[in-house]
Amino acid sequence: MSPPSVSEIDAFDRKIIEILRDDGRISITDLAARIGLSKTPCQVRLKRLIDSGFIEGFKAVVNPERLGLDHVAFAEVKLSDTREEALRAFDAAVKKIPEIEECHMIAGRFDYLLKVRTTNIRRYRHVLGEKISSLPYVANTSTNVVMQSIKENFA
């Protein structure tokens, strides 16, 4: 039996996903009660959603400010080469830099947008100069510093 496609999940499945996005530690009993099913069918649905890749895992959401990581910058990165080999090399290398929380390939005036979280501007300058600028095929970068975060997803 093949895993369900997005068109094959129903309102119960969508509700499970919605609830777990807000509270990944909810008990199966409470989850079942909230979606209006008994415990066993809820467990079966949850297992199917996990097995089929709709839910990839569960993790702790940490408070970056409590860890002293309250400096956020977005680095725009332009590559000197955008052929497939260059993109693969850049993608692999960027995954090794822990300060980079997110990396997105962009269709626009630059090639990648990186969300970088550090302790302060001095540390960001080091990460930019020593790590990001040294990534394969980086031609130039431009930085936008966050003044205040209004809404963030900590997935």
Automatic annotation (TrEMBL):
CDD domains assigned: HTH_ARSR (cd00090)
Ranges in coiled-coil conformation: none
SMART domains named among the record's database cross-references: HTH_ASNC
A Pfam match: HTH_24
Keyword Transcription regulation: yes
InterPro entries in the cross-refs: ArsR-like_HTH, AsnC-type_HTH_dom, Dimeric_a/b-barrel, Tscrpt_reg_AsnC-like, Tscrpt_reg_AsnC/Lrp_C, Tscrpt_reg_HTH_AsnC-type_CS, WH-like_DNA-bd_sf, WH_DNA-bd_sf
Keywords tagged on the record: Activator, DNA-binding, Transcription, Transcription regulation
Protein name: Lrp/AsnC family leucine-responsive transcriptional regulator
Organism: Rhizobium halophytocola
